[in-house]
Specification:
421 residues; 14 helices; 78% helix
């Protein structure tokens, strides 16, 4: 008997899950475009790297709160409520951002955009939790290999679409302007919300047992360690990804908005494609134990990459070694980083679902992505701060240290023997 049946959770039908996933994909496209629009538009208006990082802080901070409470809301009232709410809030955030005025003072502009980004952060994590929780209710838990495949495809496709959103954001800013781009995305999401209201009707993910207050905090040993590792894993990416690299490409290498957007899109799309195909070349990953070993091994490799890129950008460290140009070192190194990071992220995403009981999967996924949001918050803040104080190379050294910490927190999972979810 499947975990869903044992727990009393109502399984999802394929049509409902497809509708939830389609809505999540549409949202992800606008989320990627919005990040690039905000970053490049306000950098052009004269915001410093730290100012830009501040614009995204409430976005990440609200993700912490949303994932924590959203998991309870999803388990208590059903995932369709979190999905509809996420789409509606994102529409409101887009329309709010369209009202910004370059004539405003810097302080007021920062506060206003932070508030709009806070709404967007709430929206992102409500929709993400809805879709990633729903996959557990579609695939029977005893099919571990199939579950790994589905989680990887969902996560990979999401990141590929977010990358396309980065490109769309750069192109729209270059050719349409800031406000018209926001209106276009709000209209698209309004159509998606209307379609979702008609197609998503099941009580997807609604727990059949009472959710106690302690369920918000009491997690298994495996989920606690995995969530802690997730904090440092995603902080290691965002410390250079959010501000450092796009500003460096625009300021130091002289790239245009659409070219910066294209590179960020290629990186994220490639990252998403690798995530989606991870189960094909990690065929021996059939259970949580094998996935934990893979996360530790691939994480150790990942920790070396930002350190190598930083060394390659610091000719004084290797005076006798012929090095490629900074652009080749940076672009080539980050593309390799993206491949290895994608493998790690796919393994982590599988583990959180594998360790979760079907009846309370929304609670555990929400808790896990709360940890993800903590990491993104720290990485975003450090991205602006470290880049402004010490430059891009310093963000890469910080990234290497954070990956190493993530690997250390993964090691206790190697001896874990979790019960079947």
């Amino acid at each position: 008997m499947s975990a869903a049946a044992e727990s009393g959770a109502r399984p999802a039908d394929g049509r409902t899950y497809a509708a939830v996933t389609a809505a999540y994909w549409a949202f992800t496209l606008t989320d990627g475009a919005l990040r690039m629009l905000v970053l490049l538009h306000f950098h052009r208006l004269g915001f410093t790297p730290l100012d830009i990082a501040m614009l995204f802080l409430l976005y990440e901070a609200m993700g912490i709160v949303t994932n924590f409470l959203g998991g309870w809301i999803g388990a208590r009232f059903g995932l369709k409520i979190t999905l509809f709410s996420g789409l509606a809030v994102q529409i409101a955030a887009l329309l709010m951002l369209s009202r910004t005025d370059p004539a405003w003072t810097m302080l007021f502009s920062v506060g206003f955009v932070m508030a709009a980004q806070a709404l967007s952060g709430i929206a992102k994590d409500l929709t993400k939790m809805s879709s990633k929780s729903a996959v557990k209710l579609v695939v029977a838990s005893e099919g571990d290999g199939l579950l790994f495949k589905w989680v990887s495809i969902l996560t990979g496709s999401k990141n590929a679409l977010k990358g396309i959103g980065f490109l769309a954001g750069g192109v729209m800013l270059q050719w349409l302007g800031f406000a018209p781009s926001l209106y276009l995305m709000a209209g698209m999401l309004a159509a998606v919300l209307a379609a979702s209201l008609l197609t998503v009707t099941a009580d997807l993910g609604k727990a059949k047992t009472k959710i106690a207050r302690r369920d918000l905090f009491a997690k298994s040993r495996e989920i606690n360690f995995l969530s802690a590792a997730r904090i440092f894993l995603f902080a290691s990416r965002d410390v250079w990804f959010v501000v450092g690299v796009p500003v460096f490409l625009y300021d130091r290498l002289g790239w245009s908005f659409d070219r910066v957007g294209l590179f960020m899109a290629v990186w994220v799309v490639g990252y998403g494609i690798v995530q989606a195909v991870v189960p094909r070349f990690l065929r021996k990953t059939r259970d949580a134990g094998a996935a934990a070993r893979g996360a530790a091994i691939w994480g150790a490799f990942l920790a070396l990459l930002p350190a190598m890129i930083a060394a390659g950008l610091s000719p004084d460290l290797l005076p006798a070694v012929p090095l490629p140009t900074p652009s080749v070192t940076l672009i080539g190194g980050l593309l390799i980083f993206g491949v290895v990071f994608a493998v790690n992220s796919a393994l982590h995403s599988y583990l959180i679902v594998a360790y979760s009981d079907a009846d309370k999967v929304a609670l555990n996924v929400g808790f896990y992505y709360m940890a993800n949001a903590v990491g993104r918050f720290a990485g975003t803040l450090l991205s602006g701060l470290v880049y402004q104080l010490a430059g891009l190379t310093a963000t890469l050294w910080v990234s290497a240290g954070m990956v190493a910490l993530a690997v250390l927190l993964t090691l206790p999972l190697l001896t874990s023997r979790p019960e079947r979810a």
